[in-house]
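Quick one: PSA aminopeptidase from Chordeiles acutipennis, structure tokens please.
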Amino acid sequence: LSQARAGIISTVDVLKVMEAFVNEPNYTVWSDLSCNLGILSTLLSHTDFYEEIQVFVKDVFSPIGERLGWDPKPGEGHLDALLRGLVLGKLGKAGHKATLEEARRRFKDHVEGKHILSADLRSPVYVTILKHGDSTTLDTMLKLHKQADMQEEKNRIERVLGAISQPELIQKVLTFALSEEVRPQDTVSVIGGVAGGSKQGRKAAWKFVRDNWEELYNRYQGGFLISRLIKV
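--- reply ---
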């Protein structure tokens, strides 16, 4: 990937190498593949190839997703749980039909209190239903945020809210970021989530930071959070 970014080799060669990892069982390798595909997706979101890279993601991640399934198997380790969350989140965001349907079913059961999602499945399910959700989905997530007893769950929700796609809902998330519902130190995570969520989100987040620069600067002064905000 570094060679492709430097213009030495074709990005097509990178994708061919990625395809060779379909039977890879190791979490660290998949984490690296996921990160690199995320970089490519961000670049290609400004081109006609964006939908094609989503198809590629589904093709590469589907086999490992089918092997892992949704539920833990006897004898699994911590890395298997991490890998399951990573893979299901990647497939869900890319619009993999079976993953999206199962995420919606499990989310409905979770909200209704029928079957509470395990901690390691919450982020992938949340990000999937938000990416392909509407105003009702966002309202439900904000309600879960308000009801959450643990700060860990609030932070988990804050990090994924930016996955929502519609422009008016993106604005709602950005306004929420500066509300009293979000701790000042966590506002950057919400804005960063929007910036990393989509092409529309990046533009909206950048405009939001410019429009609210004085408030944000006064809030963080010269601390590390203001530099992190600019970076994201």
